[in-house]
Amino acid sequence: MADKEINYTKAVDYWSNVSTDENGVLGGFGLQTAVPKVDASGSIAFVERLQSLSPNTFPNGPLDATQPKIVLDVGAGIGRVSRDVISKFAPAVDILEPAGPLIEKAREIQDIVHVNKFFQMGIQDFDFPTDYKYWCIWCQWCVGQVPDAVLVDFLKKCKENLQEGGIIIVKENNSTSDEDIFDDVDSSVTRTHEKFKSLFAQAGLRLLLSSLQRGLPKDLFPVRLYALAPAVQKEEVQVNYI
Ligand SMILES: C[S@@+](CC[C@H](N)C(=O)[O-])C[C@H]1O[C@@H](n2cnc3c(N)ncnc32)[C@H](O)[C@@H]1O
């Protein structure tokens, strides 16, 4: 299986040596291309769609007034997603990012969005805070850095550490073949849409909404957004949005 080849040290070595800008974290598709803008506007449109479809979930309510409105930005890189997308909906973020130079650069976003905490580590080592839960957990272009079993375990923890009405967003490349594809450059896997759905189900999550990102260059993998919430308990009534 493709994920057996993942090596965390190789991955962090790679990400610690890219340029600390859009070009570095987006594999050469920096600000000289349309990719960063198209990506951000697609994400904002996706959250707005979610907002209109689902009055009881992020970024609407109801929210537990005792909980802070904090979004966890997973594999945040230079904090691009927090700065360009999450800041439009949420007042504060926690940044989870293992590569030192990237997390240092992410400190600059504090003029735009309040960063509550910086966690310099990978998904596989993250212990969720014990004194608050997240309003939203945003994973973008980073979950391919961990094997399937580690991702399922992390998503289960995300579910447990989500406020009532909170949402998990996963925005990732989809494999164009029937199999997941290993990339030796950053030691990551690109998963099929079917694999993602299976892993979400194994983690006890249900898919509220899923959509392909439009407007990206044709030579890139298809990019898909998933909005996830804890699976419905038997006694609850389920409303499907897809
Ligand atoms: C393609 S970049 C995406 C960065 C950011 N999410 C964005 O969209 O701008 C991949 C990011 O995943 C991070 N990463 C690498 N290994 C990771 C791990 N095990 N857990 C979490 N993030 C990881 C990298 O350091 C890098 O910042």
Task: Characterise the protein shown here.
The structure is a single chain. This protein has helices spanning 8-15, 22-25, 35-53, 80-84, 100-106, 148-160, 193-202; strands at residues 70-74, 92-96, 114-119, 134-140, 162-173, 181-183, 188-190, 205-212, 223-230. The model has no long low-confidence stretch (mean pLDDT 94). Strand 4 (134-140), helix 6 and strand 5 form a beta-alpha-beta unit. The strands form two sheets. Strands 3-2-1-4-5-9-8 form a seven-stranded mixed β-sheet, with helices on both faces. It has seven helices and nine strands; from the N terminus they run H-H-H-E-H-E-H-E-E-H-E-E-E-H-E-E. The two termini are 30 Å apart. The protein has a single domain, classed as Vaccinia Virus protein VP39 (Rossmann fold, 3-Layer(aba) Sandwich), CATH 3.40.50.150. The longest helix is centred in the first third of the chain and has 19 residues, at 35-53. By secondary structure, it is of the alpha/beta class. Helices cover 27% and strands 24% of the residues. It binds S-adenosylmethionine. This is Alpha N-terminal protein methyltransferase 1. It is an enzyme of class 2 (transferase). Belongs to the methyltransferase superfamily. NTM1 family. It comes from Starmerella bacillaris. GO terms for molecular function: N-terminal protein N-methyltransferase activity.
Question: How many beta strands in the DSSP annotation?
Answer: 9
The CATH superfamily bears the name Vaccinia Virus protein VP39
Q: What ranges have pLDDT less than 50 throughout 5 or more consecutive residues?
A: none
> The CATH topology, please?
Rossmann fold
Distance between the termini: 30 Å
Cα-atom radius of gyration: 17 Å
Approximately how much helix is present in the residues? Answer: 25-40%
Largest β sheet strand count, sense and barrel closure: 7 strands, mixed
Compute the number of structural domains.
1
CATH class: Alpha Beta
